[in-house]
Design a protein that fits this description.
The chain is of the alpha/beta class and about 230 residues long. Helix content is about 20%, strand content about 30%. It has a single domain, classed as Ribonuclease Z/Hydroxyacylglutathione hydrolase-like (Metallo-beta-lactamase, Chain A, 4-Layer Sandwich), CATH 3.60.15. The strands form three sheets. It has a seven-stranded mixed sheet with strand order 6-5-4-3-2-1-15. A six-stranded mixed sheet has the order 7-8-11-12-13-14, with helices on one face. It binds nickel (II) ion and manganese (II) ion (MN). The site of manganese (II) ion has 6 residues, from helix 1.
């Protein structure tokens, strides 16, 4: 599988027959190497409702005819605006043509704010994706939690983990998360987008290597084959 990073928590996962866009955030993303209008995909997956994970979901979904897969409230929110959607909830998975998506727990919040009004959009989630013989976990925005051990038991080829601190786990807790998850490879995310979440991914990778974990930061616009 090929994984391309667009900065923040936004990735394109390409497997034979399907292109999955995870947590679309191009508009207003200072790290994005391209615009939402440049993206082609078959599915859009959103971990939670915050703008920095969903703001381009509707436009990209409509233009590509790509269903939005997310928690039930996010799915209904976008369905009411004309999108094709598939709603799930934490602990629930579904077999799609490209493979299985299961929503996991995440400890965070999940809302959409427009004109000062807050709409709450269900539970924040992580995305556990089994496709092309590999398992990938996109943790979404989350605190460290001990049930990550259970997610790790699936045997993860890759874990995409937030390291930014302030809104999510910082590097120290992300190291604890690696001890729980034990993925073959970790790709850090949700850092350096704004001043509050400035982090050094290479320093995180070195600290993780000292604990026996492989971390490979990807620069926005770059791809990695897993
Ligand atoms: Ni968030
Ligand atoms: Mn976020």
């Amino acid at each position: 599988m090929k994984l391309t990073y667009f900065g923040h928590s936004c990735f394109l996962l390409e497997v034979p027959g399907a292109r999955l866009l995870l947590d679309p955030y191009f508009t207003g993303n200072p790290l994005a190497p391209c615009r939402a209008a440049d993206v082609a995909c078959d599915y859009v997956l959103c971990s939670h409702g915050h703008e920095d994970h969903t703001c381009d979901a509707l436009e990209i979904s409509r233009r590509n005819g790509a269903p939005i897969l997310a928690n039930y409230e996010i799915a209904e929110f976008f369905a009411a605006q004309g999108a094709q959607t598939h709603g799930l909830n934490p602990g629930g998975g579904f077999d799609f043509p490209f493979g299985r998506v299961k929503l996991t727990l995440a400890f965070h919040s999940s809302s959409w704010i427009e004109n000062g009004r807050i709409t709450y959009l269900g539970e924040p989630c992580g995305l556990l994706i089994a496709t092309a013989g590999k398992k990938l976990y996109h943790a979404g925005d989350t605190a460290l939690f001990s049930d990550m051990q259970l997610i790790g038991r699936a045997g993860l080829d890759a874990a995409l983990l937030p390291i930014g601190d302030n809104f999510t786990m910082g590097p120290a807790d992300a190291l604890e998360a690696l001890d729980f998850l034990r993925p073959k490879l970790c790709i850090p995310m949700h850092y350096n987008t704004w001043p509050e979440i400035r982090q050094d991914p290479e320093r995180f990778a070195a600290a993780a290597a000292n604990r026996g974990h492989a971390v490979h930061p990807i620069r926005p616009g770059e791809s990695l084959t897993i």
